[in-house]
Amino acid sequence: VQNTIQKNDRDKIAVIISDAMRYEIAVELQERLNKSSQGTMELKTMVGSLPSYTKLGMASLLPHDSLQLKNNHYLADGISTEGTPNRAKIVDKATPDSVTLTSDELLSLTQKEALKKFKNVRVFYIYHNVIDSTGDNESSEDKVFKETETAIQEIQKIIEKLTNFQILNNVIVTADHGFIYRRDDLESVYKLDKATFDKDRIIDSKKRFILTTENIDVMNTHKFKINNLVETENNLYAYVPVADLRFRMQGGGNKFVHGGLAPQEIIIPVLKYSYKKSSQLASKGIKKGKVGVTVTNPGRRITSNSFSVNLLQTEKVSDKLKPLKVRIALWDSEFDGEKVSDEKTVILEHSSEEPTERQQKVILTLGNNVENKTYYLKLIDDDPTAINKNVIEPIPFEVDLLLKDDFDF
Predict the structure, then answer these.
(1) Considering the domain boundaries, does residue 254 fall inside one?
(2) What average pLDDT does the segment 121-141 reach?
(3) Which of 96, 143, 172, 282 holds its CA 20 to 30 A away from the CA of 12?
């Protein structure tokens, strides 16, 4: 964030924090954005906080010099990290020209409202909560994978709104933690007894961690002293079950959990998105839109009723270059006119690096009443939304048929 705003006094950046968005979901989001948006993406990872739960994860992502834990509440340089208003105070302290809001608040704004509200804002912290709110509820945890699709779509909408409204060009999407999920119900053998711990010394606990001031050895758990991460009055220890075991406790679901040390819980994505104009993409050698096509016939002369047209798809289909569907025919005029051959539909959709594997041959047949003169081959985009229907400039072909009348004795 600081690298972006320190470049100059103009660039802006948004940080979207999506609760419990694990790395694989960010991979899918990246693929969707690559296909649908005009921007470049870079996806990296970072290791989240331990225990991998919301309160600590959200606190760690805020700008701060130090984190403190008092009465089971995290503070960033003395300010509570819980709730959007408190987080806004922390972000504003680090960057005065900032705004902190929820995804729902942003998505509800019109372009006029957004431009007015964000006129002098350079740093945006946007909190998004679909996955965690679904998974952390026992009655809805079965729907968490369905809701990951909702989360991806909503984050796409946030990015589109920020860039299409010309509010900013730079976005970072990250998360406070991930999660693990197990479809079948856990048998008691997979649950660890919480009674091993002195309940009066437990600071916080969930199915995948126990935070306590007690320093003991517990079978089938990893123990970590976390005073180097969080300032506390006493030594603080995090106990997390090995593998995907859970602590036995009441409340909440058993399928969707987080707080532990599994890669799916603690490795979080950092997706950097930069909106680019078409000219900027082109300068980087990145094309966007549909693949191109060219006619490679060595000659432009037609000597029989049936003739072939050789097509070369000039680029491979990629994230940013979509297949092209064209209608090809011979016309009697360079402009509007009438077709003088049959019309064939061709889909150019090859993804091979080899140009020879992106070639196609189309056979056209001339209609009746064709004379020996110049006609025009046209390739027309079959997409009804296409603005420029002619994929290439009409190509003149000379028809030179041996007519029967020449032998009429």
Answers:
(1) no
(2) 93
(3) 282
